[in-house]
Write a structure and sequence with these properties.
Blueprint lengths: L1 E6 L10 H4 L6 H21 L4 E6 L17 E3 L18 E7 L17 E6 L2 E2 L2 H11 L4 E7 H10 L4 E10 L2 E4 L2 H17 L14 E6 L2 H7 L5 E3 L5 E5 L3 H15 L6
Parallel strand pairs: 1-2, 1-4, 2-3, 4-7, 7-8
Antiparallel strand pairs: 5-6, 5-10, 8-9, 10-12, 11-12
Helix pairs in contact: 2-5, 6-7
Enzyme class: hydrolase
Organism: Paenibacillus pasadenensis
GO molecular function, one term: aminopeptidase activity
């Protein structure tokens, strides 16, 4: 049995503001260590429960945050940027399930450090359904027939996951107070919770079905300002709403929709707010 583990950073316990998740900030090195520790708890539990292979994808920012020298020795790490499929790089039909660790809620909903890919993306929809990183990644997993078995993050992320994926196991490592504050479990407590929840998720994997994406999905992204939308609209095949900063793309399938999202948000990041 193979397990795919995508690890973001904002949903890790103790991560409450930008000082923990942006390289160069004074808490970032601490954030890397806690992030690596949380990944290790999931990996160790997966091996204990009979997984033969665990692939870990560093899924935060430039995707080079996890400390490979401190990672569980039997895991394999996908690290670095650029990845053609970003947070779900390397995911395919050979996996029995996926775990999303350190995840956060979508923009513009409440949740610790909530956002969707980039801070300029205000809302995203896939086939008319509001989605964030969790939803988009779960639909890619579903495209391969892989169920998302475990989602870890704050309590608002757990609600988002449970509404999206019936039967998913969630691990709440911190409780939302505001976008930049939370009631956090200590790393020891979050580690034990993640081990227990990984065991639970693998034991009950038969109750979770892959999240099947829509056929020929239409991706829509509302940006924070019209300049960002104009940049995103440079991608061929997109349409720009004349009255709002919404760019749409009619994709052939889920994989094309996902890559279109990556291109659009990358282009939009070139725009300035002033």
């Amino acid at each position: 049995m193979k397990l795919y583990v995508s690890v973001d950073m904002e949903g890790i316990t103790g991560m409450v503001d930008s000082t923990f998740v942006f390289p160069g900030r004074h808490n970032y090195a601490r954030g890397q260590q806690i992030m690596t520790d949380e990944a290790n708890h999931v990996i160790a539990s997966a091996f204990d429960e009979g997984c033969a292979e665990v692939i870990v994808n560093d899924s935060h920012s430039k995707m080079n945050n996890l400390l490979i020298e401190r990672l569980h020795p039997e895991a394999q790490l996908l690290s670095g940027d650029v990845k053609p499929y970003s947070m779900v790089q390397g995911l395919d039909a050979s996996f029995a399930g996926a775990a999303f660790i350190g995840y956060h809620t979508m923009a513009p909903t409440p949740g610790v450090l909530s956002h969707s890919m980039v801070f300029g993306a205000h809302r995203m929809w896939l086939g008319g359904k509001a989605v964030g990183e969790l939803g988009l990644n779960a639909y890619v997993a579903g495209r391969y027939g892989v169920p998302v078995l475990l989602v870890a993050g704050d309590d608002r992320t757990a609600v988002e996951a449970e509404e999206l994926i019936p039967g998913v196991t969630t691990a709440v490592v911190k409780t939302y107070v505001s976008r930049t504050s939370a009631l956090c479990l200590t790393p020891d407590k979050s580690g034990q919770l993640l081990r227990d929840k990984t065991k639970e998720a693998l034991a009950s994997r038969g109750r979770v079905q892959p999240l099947v994406p829509p056929d020929k999905p239409v991706l829509a992204i509302e940006f924070a300002n019209y300049g960002q939308a104009e940049w995103a609209h440079l991608m061929p095949g997109t349409e720009l709403d004349n009255g709002s900063p919404v760019v749409t793309f009619a994709a052939a399938d889920m994989l094309e929709a996902y890559r279109a999202m990556l291109v659009m948000v990358e282009l939009a990041s070139r725009a300035e707010f002033c």
